[in-house]
Amino acid sequence: MIDRLNKLKNTNVKSINVNEENIIESVKDATQGFPLVIETQSTSLNLKSWISHNKEKFEQDMINYGGVLFRGFEINSVNKFQDLMNIFPNELLEYKLRSSPRHSISGNVYVSTTYPNDQIINMHSESSYAPVHPSRIIFCCVTPALKKGETPIADTRKVLKKISRETVEMFREKGIKYRRVLNGILGLAWQEVFQTDDKEIVEKECLNNGMEFCWKGDKELVISWTKKAIWEHPITNEEIWFNHGLFFNKYMLNKRVLSSISDDEKLPNNTFFGDGTEISKEIIEEINNAFIKSTVSFPWEKGDVLFLDNLLMAHGRNTYEGERKVIVSMY
Predict the structure, then answer these.
(1) Is residue 80 included in any domain, yes or no?
(2) Which residue range is the domain that position 265 belongs to?
(3) How many domains does the chain have?
(4) Most CB contacts within 10 A, which of 66, 159, 263, 284?
(5) Same domain for 193 and 238
(6) Backbone region of residue 102 per phi and psi (left: phi > 0; alpha: psi in -120 to 50; beta: other values)
(7) How far apart (Å, rounded) are the C-alpha atoms in residues 143 and 328?
(8) Residue 284 CA: distances (Å) to CA of 53, 245, 249, 271, 272
(9) What is the domain-level CATH number for residue 320?
(10) CA 258, CA 176: separation in Å to the nearest integer?
């Protein structure tokens, strides 16, 4: 126990509480104030049961901290994570209107985005661009990377406060327009994004969700739509920066991809102000810097489970070496 407490003292612990269940609570980054770490000293303590019996506390912690990291509960396999997710059997969401390659392992449990390990995944709020977005996203580390491979997280309340008032007001007034070119060349194919080969189903989904669409032959589909950029959290009523304006913007694309495209119309994705005007490189850099200043990053340990309030916490992925298996579910 003493060794564990000393270890926690070296990781910016804000407070430590040890109760009868051999639980230690701490804050991973005391300066930023999140995430809460709940770590067990008992290998016999079942996380599924603990959450069920401490539901009120769990829900309050999620609101207070935006993210809760459970450590030491040995959720170190797909089956164990799937069993944990059975707490929310009627709430788990499918990964719809996809923006990145991700395959299902079991039910609504997925492998986190299959993206080259030498490239980062920029900060984003899961499916904030989509007609339906999850309230929560849960990560489980089955195999930590040999080096790096962290999943950085950022408080969207803090991000919003670090963007200039002038920029915020432009987004508040105009919203964000998204444009995607789906052809399977530089981005995903339309069949993977919509999870169907039926054009009629795709067109119906676009019409139902206020998306403009244009077919360019059988292999390419261009879609565009507008959403608000700044939201209110449904429970706390706090304003949050909740959108894919940064993630989808051309200035955040991989340089190799950008160098291969001479016409912006061929970009796999891009974002604009809601009136269709360009978002400048300077504004994108301002938003990116706001994320950098609001981000916490920590090494994964095998068996870690990280619950995030998807509206309060954005996330990304760092580069890594070696095998890495982080699985995910949403509700």
Answers:
(1) yes
(2) 158-291
(3) 2
(4) 66
(5) yes
(6) beta
(7) 13
(8) 44, 8, 8, 10, 11
(9) 3.60.130.10
(10) 21
- pLDDT tens digit at each of 331 positions of the chain: 334 333 433 444 443 344 546 899 999 999 999 999 999 988 789 999 999 999 999 999 999 999 999 999 999 999 999 999 988 866 665 656 656 555 566 667 887 766 789 989 999 999 999 988 999 999 999 999 999 999 999 999 999 999 999 999 999 999 999 999 999 888 889 998 898 999 999 999 999 999 999 999 889 999 999 999 999 999 999 999 999 999 999 999 877 777 777 788 889 999 999 999 999 999 999 999 999 999 999 999 999 999 999 999 999 999 999 999 999 998 8
Please name the residues in contact with 189: beta carbons below 8 A apart, sequence gap of 6 or more: 182, 183, 219
User: Does 164 fall in a domain?
Assistant: yes
Residue 153's beta-bridge partner residues? 296, 315
Residues 226 and 277 in one domain: yes
Same domain, 189 and 105: no
Is the sign of the CA dihedral 255, 261, 262, 263 positive or negative? negative
240 and 303 fall within a common domain? no
User: Which residue in the block uniquely carries the two structure tokens 């200039």?
Assistant: 164
Q: What is residue 148's three-state secondary structure?
A: strand
